[in-house]
Amino acid sequence: MIDQVVILLGPPGSGKGTQATRLSAELGVPHVATGDMFRTQMEEGTDLGQRAGRYMDSGRLVPDELVTEMLFVRVDGEDCVEGYVLDGFPRNLSQAESLDQGLEGRWSSSVASLEVPDEVLVERIAGRLLCREDSNHIYHASFSPPKVEGVCDECGGELYRREDDNPEVVAERLYVYREQTAAVITHYAQDGRLEPVDGNQGPDEVYRALRSAVEGSDVEEGG
What we know:
Elements: E1 4-9, H1 16-27, E2 31-33, H2 34-43, H3 47-57, H4 64-75, E3 83-87, H5 93-103, E4 109-115, H6 118-126, E5 128-131, E6 138-140, E7 159-160, H7 167-190, E8 194-198, H8 203-215
Parallel strand pairs: 1-3, 1-4, 2-3, 4-8
Antiparallel strand pairs: 5-6, 5-7
Helix pairs in contact: 2-3, 2-4, 3-4, 4-5, 6-7
């Protein structure tokens, strides 16, 4: 169990979501992912969800103020009393500063950043294969291919690549990520909270390095 907020940063393809889920389970605190938060608010038809939906339906970005408001509504829940692992936020300096203000006087925080070269990320994402029958069945053309090309081992469904997983689109997504988060990385590095983690390893090795970084930020052993 911990008594602080762990902020996990990482580009698309870094394994951030998987590592955040594993870390939250071992520490005994919620994994707060902004994508899940948006879906919940919209599915429940809350005022926040409706406001965010109007922006998304018109192809506009949801304003930072609304995203931050939605986040703090989520983490005010009883399940976050002992802390939480934050995944997907902050994405820019404005969000990071708003998060600092919201945490001040209530929570201490540590920041871990998964570092993976862009060429490795492109290979990881561009080789990803999804099953049309069950999106939880995921393969990789190079690292974990199916036994029969194009066929899911689990259910026999057709495997496909998402359109936005082609190398050109992935490279553009990474460029946008780097542009948005460069100031966030600098912000946390300057105040001494940033703990870089080598994400260019196997999942277990990455997790051990992540856990070591978190423990180095005065998070107590738990799980």
